[in-house]
Amino acid sequence: MPDKALLSEMNDRSREVFRLVVEGYLNTGAPVGSRTLTRDMTEKVSAATVRNVMQDLEYMGLLGSPHVSAGRIPTQTGLRMFVDGLLEVNMNGEDRDQIDKTFGEGRDDVNTLLDRVGSALSGVTRGASLVMTPKHEAPIKHIEFVSLSADKALVVLVFADGQVENRLFTPPAGQTPSSMREAANFVNAFAQGRTLSELSTVMQREVEARRNEIDRLAADMVASGIAVWENKGESTERLIVRGRGNLLTDSENAEDLDRIRVLFDDLERKRDIAEFLDLTEDGDGVRIFIGSENKLFSLSGSSLVVSPYMNADRKIIGAVGVIGPTRLNYGRIVPIVDYTAQLVGRVLSGQS
Questions:
Q1: 273-298 tens-digit pLDDT
Q2: Per-domain residue ranges for the chain?
Q3: How far apart (Å, rounded) are the C-alpha atoms in residues 117 and 103?
């Protein structure tokens, strides 16, 4: 995310040129030239002066030029700065009325209501809508962990009642797609009939059982001075073996050591799985994802504007959003999504 100090350091002329280029691009999708800008500037300046300012903004990484002789368009960094620092949001009465109408069509169950909300958002914004339903706590039928990037993963939860949930989370460091598949295979072996919280409890018991078994096997070696614990009880714990030659003449100790190695591998795997299950409970706040900032939509060059909705206890239970091109009309879309999320939260909380 660009430094907001960069925006404050820009003079009025640079800030106005930058704003006009971004707004022009968002309106037309086309590069904006210096001659066009001179007609819209509040200050009467020459096209050459405007070109110099645009070159400075390009050097700062805020504007780009698709062709040598073309005008400028905002870069992804420039779009982010515009959204964070210069965006003026405005929700008009017609948009508000259309969203309000969605919530005035009788009392339905949650899924029917959210289906209508998704259709209304898509219709009002002319974009694809995204609706994340309240988190489910029913018995799980199947679970999958999908790696999206080095620091982002998706968990797919299929519940026994047929509902499906997708949740984004940041996986523990060092995890690979194959390790996530192994985690899912392990969890699915005993997931059926258990809720997510029950699964977490089971995993913690498994971790504790492996920990106790390692302690029991290592106790004699530690007591006799053959081995010593380092960082015991922590995620970086190790059993350091001294006098390895003595183990060669003591088959029982050697067998125990091999067993401890196997148990350590199993303990680490179960710790990771327990952490996976805990992380799926996390939720994000209001975010605007632009282009490649959103790993789910970067290939199509799309943006996602999403806002969470909360229950009566101010706990995030879901989110609504709109997916569209990076040149979305953010000033119009952001307040629509935010207003819709507030209404969903109030309805689900039983408020007027």
A1: 777 777 665 544 345 556 655 555 55
A2: 4-85, 93-135+282-348, 140-279
A3: 8
Long-range contacts of 346-352 (CB under 8 A, 24+ apart): 347/103, 347/113, 348/110, 348/134, 348/309, 348/311, 348/317, 349/310, 349/311, 349/312, 350/312, 351/312
> CB within 8 A of 236, min separation 6: which ones?
none
Ramachandran category for residue 223: left, alpha or beta (phi over 0 → left; psi -120 to 50 → alpha): alpha
Which residue shows structure tokens 């302690």? 215
**CATH class of the domain at 4-85:** mainly alpha
Nearest Cα to 199, choosing from 277, 283, 279, 137? 277
CA-atom Rg of the chain in angstroms: 28
> What's the sign of the alpha-carbon dihedral 274, 275, 276, 282?
positive
Closest by alpha carbon to 63, among 97, 34, 94, 102? 34
Q: Which CATH number does 93-135+282-348 carry?
A: 3.30.450.40
Mind listing the pLDDT tens digit for each residue in 32-58? Answer: 988 889 888 888 888 889 989 999 999
pLDDT band at 233 (very low <50, low <70, confident <90, very high): low
pLDDT of residue 253: 61
Within 8 A by CB and 6+ apart from 322, the residues are: 121, 122, 125, 127, 128, 129, 130, 304, 305, 306, 328, 333, 336, 337
